[in-house]
Amino acid sequence: MKIYRAIILSVALYGCKTWYLILKNGRRLRVFDNRVLGRIFGSKRDEVTGEWRKLHNEELNDLYSSPNIFRVIKSRRMRWAGHVARMWDSSGVYRVLVGKHEGKTPIGRLWCRGEDNIKMGLQEVRCEAMDWIDLCQDRYSWRAVVSAVMNLWVS
Asked: What is the pTM of this model?
C-alpha cells in the first residue's frame, strides 16, 4: 500500500490540480484504481461455494479505507487553488484560474473554468455562500475546508 500511495497514485494523478473531469475520464480513473487495488489485495475464497473470486468494488473500498480517487483529486485541486488565490492578482496563474474566457464557445459545450471546480467543491461541503478567495487568505480555515472535501463521504 505504501508503494501504491507513493508511486502509482502520484504518477496517475500528476497534474490533476488542473483537470476538469468529465464522466468518461472519471470512469477510467475509477476502473484503474479498482484494478490496481484488486491486484494488491488479490482474490478471496467464497465461504459458501469454496471457489476463488475477485473482490467486489465495495469490498476493495472497505479494505483500502482511504478516500477514493475523486476525493484525492478534489482536495489537491482545492489546496492548489488556495495557493493561487494568495498570489498577486497580476500573476498569470491567478488570471487563468479566475479569469473569463474570450471568444466563442464550441457548439454544445460550455467553458469550464478552474473557479467553477472550486465552487462545486465548496457546494459539497456547504460553504458556497462564502467568497472562496477571501476564505483562502486565512490558511487555517482553507485547510479545514480542504480536509472537509477530502473526508466527505460519497456513496
From this structure: 0.74
Beta bridge partners, 52, equal 45
With the C-alpha atoms ordered 57, 59, 60, 61, is the resulting torsion angle positive or negative?
Answer: positive
pLDDT digits (tens, 9 = 90+) for 48-87: 888 888 888 888 878 887 777 888 888 888 888 888 888 8
- How big is the CA angle at 153 (ends 150 and 155), to the nearest 5 degrees? 130
Residues 50/56, Cβ–Cβ less than 8 Å: no
Asked if residues 71 and 149 have their Cβ atoms less than 8 Å apart, the reply is: yes
Contact predicate 47/63, CB 8 Å: no
Within 13 Å and on the Cβ side, how many CA atoms surround 62? 5
